[in-house]
Amino acid sequence: MAQLTRRTTDLLKPFSAALSSTRLLTTTSTTPITVETSLPFTGHKIDPPSRSVETTPQELMNFFRDMALMRRMEIAADSLYKAKLIRGFCHLYDGQEAVSVGMEAAITKKDCIITAYRDHCIFLGRGGTLLECFAELMGRKDGCSKGKGGSMHFYKKDSGFYGGHGIVGAQIPLGCGLAFAQKYSKDENVTFAMYGDGAANQGQLFEALNMAALWDLPAILVCENNHYGMGTAEWRAAKSPAYYKRGDYVPGLKANGMDAFAVKQACKFAKEHALKNGPIILEMDTYRYHGHSMSDPGSTYRTRDEISGVRQERDPIERIRKLVLSHDLATEKELKDIEKEVRKEVDEAIAQAKESPMPDPSELFTNVHVKGFGVEAFGADRKELRAVLP
Amino acid sequence: MILVAYGRQVDCAYVFGEDVGFGGVFRCTTGLSDRFGKQRVFNTPLCEQGIVGFAIGLAAMGNRAIAEIQFADYIFPAFDQIVNEAAKFRYRSGNQFNCGGLTIRAPYGAVGHGGHYHSQSPEAFFCHVPGIKVVIPRSPQQAKGLLLSSIRDPNPVVFFEPKWLYRLAVEEVPENDYMLPLSEAEVIREGSDITLVGWGAQLSVMEQACVEAEKDGISCELIDLKTLIPWDKEKIESSVNKTGRLLVSHEAPITGGFGAEISASITERCFLRLEAPVARVCGLDTPFPLVFEPFYLPTKNKILDAIKSTVNYYSSYDKSSPVHQHTLLEKNHLWIYAFNALDRRVA
Ligand SMILES: Cc1ncc(C[n+]2csc(CCOP(=O)(O)OP(=O)(O)O)c2C)c(N)n1
Ligand SMILES: [Mg+2]
Q: How far does residue A292's CA lie from ligand 1's centre (Å)?
């Protein structure tokens, strides 16, 4: 994945500036390195790919920076929510960052992604800017959906991000429709339709799987298994929490979703598979640090030890930090500096987003139907009120 | 608490839904599973269509199946089960089978910042379905009595709870088991100039408008419909025959809302008695907005304006009257409301 920072605003420091201080990168940033995934893959009706993943110093540093940026953004969103600058329902992604960055590293922006409401970081991964994120979260004009959607409704058409869906499971069959269109146009692209372990119990998933398999669609169904659907642990809700196997006749692959390289390898493998043979399920074993949404402290249905255990042993950013250090690509201080910079970028984006105006009141009526389709609304009393579209 | 009263009485009642065993997102079922056992109060997977279909089967075996849909916005995956299975089971089996023991509870309506998928009022969709009942309480006390009636009613009931009230409403609720009759509207404020009909959380907004109108010498009669189908036409009819005017208000979008049905029926029944067209003050015909929630909602001021112009309907023909100038301004009204609402929010 290219650097997220490049796509943020001009005010922000480009990525290369951050790297110039690090030692090896300028000369050998593209020298291949091979890393092992932390755990083997498990396959269902398929031979899993190798654990050795090719990467470069540049990619390692990108992973570090991109995930640090995502983490910082989500933590800032938490504070903004508590300050009541963000309203509504807000679901954070911290802990799951490796899924987004690993996936992006394996695919192109012509491949489509569609996901549920936990969408901020997926949007960022697709090249969205911090300003668009924060402005949307705060319901401002500069938001990626013009401030009309809020947290659950991030979209980015120019890089194939079909968003942000609030109804659990509804996005999965949509993903099959996207994949059908891709197959029809023979453009060798695929769709990643993402859903949670809770969503995996919705009937729509199984309808989607059947259609995808019946028509050999280039659809990759990505189950982000963070082990809880709201307060319900996976085993309470699913007879078989082996989500990668639940497609029965559809092959599946389970990967460590806390390891960006495992995710990258799995997605690369899945894309090749899907283009040749049709759908595949990828189960990403991951974890969300925050509660389900802002009204959930996240500690009533799981122990604090469980959370801190994952932070200590499986954290996706720490894993990359260790790899960077062990390959001597940067010093600890340099990585800390990157984190500081990222923090600054986030703060600057928030400041900008706060300056962004509320959407014009007429936006209440726009996009209900196509422009000029006779959008009408009614005012007080019996009097009709026609909103003139700008 | 309400469900406790029920559980105590009958041992064939089951309560289930997403996270219900832990108390549910709105804590409505807190402590129930400890009290009545995990066999009778339990979590389901996240699958609304399955939840309702399962509940229909359970009810068909003679049980009281009380299913929770976490938010009314998520009832749509179960729409087919409700419309095609639950509502027609008795009819199409020639009364061999029914799922009368089925009650589906779902929180509905605005919460202040819920956005598109945590705010909707879908009652009208269900009012178009013969074979089910739709009940919406306005307060905790009402909720208990109406819910117990709904559970015991021999027909499947969709019971929408105003989530606005979960946090705001405080009321003495009797400990004992009591029922409030379904399909019986209640006059909660008597008046002589205009009849106002609503349900659920909207009633408290309407009540404030009634109080304001009274300061201008307008006497409003406020009626809580409580059961939307089958609804108490007679009570509304007799009230309108007294006042000669009707206003209906709900949060759901105006077009195709249940207000339209009330308006049409009362116009048929009271045509010669009506002194003004029936006024509807409802949600706008837009998706439920996030930042524009205060613009969208049928607020007190919108209702108050509608009360005044309905009561002054004839005099507004007099071009020189201030009321007429008032209506001329109306095209801009929404924006005025909007900005007022915003000011209040910012303040
Ligand atoms: C149809 C529907 N039912 C219920 C909900 C409420 N709800 C939102 S998220 C969620 C849990 C989903 O869990 P999971 O699929 O594991 O995703 P995660 O939140 O863990 O990312 C529930 C029950 C909803 N949004 N839509
Ligand atoms: Mg989950």
A: 9
